[in-house]
Amino acid sequence: MASQPEVARKSRKKPAPAQPDNSSTGSRRKQLMENEVLEHATRLFAERGFNGTSLQDIAEAMGLKRPALYYYFKSKDELLDRLIVEATSGPAHDLNKIAALSDMDVAARLHAMARHIVIWVTSNRDRFLLLVKSESDLSPASAKKFNEGRRAALDAVRSIIEEGIEAGQFRPVDAKIAAFGVWGICNWAAWWYHPKGETPLDTVADQLAEMAVAGLQRADRRESAVVSPRNLVAALRDQLDQLDKALSRDDTF
């Protein structure tokens, strides 16, 4: 009969070696694949329309079999919902963060918000325009998410305009109408701005943001509009370039 210490030694098992945690690597890989699916879906939806595109079409465009696509998205509606969330909740979150910056005055925050909108819609032009053009094809559930996301972003702009009115920096206007005006100025850039154009995106975003702020500021405060030295230098260079082109070939912007 084994002694008590021997039994104890036999009963003690060595701890299993720690297994490497690959969850973060797998998560990153999945995220990359999901982004690729979204890019292909955006292109095909734009070419064929949402109703004219199937998951099979997207799978074939990626060189995948349809069952493999199900690992990332179970349906077209789920895929479209993801596009909607990224196009609305992300910008709304960013705008609310800017609105909450206590170290910036209200005009500077509105300028930053307008600038952010311009850069976002132009940098994500295909997805933004796709959702706007496909609004009539959205299911009731998807349309609700889309409208809620847009409303959240618009409310962030309206709240900063209301703050500016209360502080006496902005004219006493209807804040909701003014928010739609700022939204329209910024979003319209998605239709006409092209990255390969002559004017850099930073210059475009700064100018549109300054116009949005100037349109709301009281006359006695417009002189203090938000213009950084970098923006002034960029604007002057751009104007000189345009003048030089106009003189050389009579072709303005």
Could you outline the blueprint of secondary structure elements for this entry?
Elements: H1 4-11, H2 23-48, H3 55-62, H4 66-69, H5 76-99, H6 106-123, H7 125-133, H8 140-166, H9 175-187, H10 189-192, H11 201-214, H12 229-249
Structural summary, described in words:
The chain has 253 residues and is an all-alpha fold. The protein is 70% helix and 0% strand. It has 12 helices and no strands. It has helices spanning 4-11, 23-48, 55-62, 66-69, 76-99, 106-123, 125-133, 140-166, 175-187, 189-192, 201-214, 229-249. 24% of the residues are buried.
Question: Which features characterize this protein?
Answer:
disordered C terminus, mainly alpha, elongated
Backbone structural class: mainly alpha
Total strand segments:
0
Strand content: under 5%
The geometry reads as elongated
Average pLDDT, all residues: 79
Compose a concise summary of this entry:
With 253 residues, the protein is mostly helical.
